[in-house]
Design brief:
Elements (H helix, E strand, L loop, with lengths): L8 E5 L3 H13 L5 E5 L2 H9 L15 E4 L8 H10 L8 E5 L4 H9 L4 E4 L4 H18 L7
Parallel strand pairs: 1-2, 1-3, 3-4, 4-5
Helix pairs in contact: 1-5, 2-3
Length: 150
């Protein structure tokens, strides 16, 4: 929808506490004022998106404008979760960017087949992560038109 509100809400599914902290710091470093929510595994991401369990209140689980998804997580990996997100009519319009350490061609191909919007290999240096976060925020929240959150 043109002109629809585009909340700067990002939910990141990442099981590594250091990567979560680095992402939060990178977002702050690029001076983006996004509201960042973390979940630690694929099952928790689905709970967040479907407002189940501890995320049953909209205030604690605002609809994200962007999902950052790690591939290799406990309980449910990123591939399974991506497949479920893209199969759900209420969730499929949320952009999903896979942000992972993998660089395998088979992972890249599979992720796009499952409906991911982008595949990014995690930068190894903090400066690279800052640059990636700045570009992601600029593109997904300032450049493209997103649908209104539900």
């Amino acid at each position: 929808m043109k002109g629809a509100p585009k909340p700067d809400v990002i939910v990141m599914a990442e099981d590594d506490a250091d990567d979560r902290l680095l992402t939060r710091d990178a977002l702050a470093e690029c001076q983006w004022k996004a509201e960042l929510h973390f979940v630690e595994n694929g099952e928790e991401l689905l709970d967040y998106l479907l407002r189940r369990g501890k995320y049953d209140q909209a205030a604690s689980s605002p609809r994200p404008g962007l999902i950052l998804l790690d591939l290799n997580m406990p309980r449910r990996d990123g591939r399974e979760v991506l497949s479920e997100i893209k199969a759900n009519p209420d969730l499929r319009c949320i952009p999903v960017v896979v942000l992972t350490t993998s660089r395998a061609d088979t992972d890249i191909e599979a992720i796009y087949q499952l409906g991911a919007n982008s595949f990014i290999s995690k930068p190894v240096r903090f400066k690279g992560l800052v640059q990636v976060m700045g570009l992601l925020c600029q593109y997904w929240f300032k450049t493209v038109e997103l649908t209104a959150p539900k």
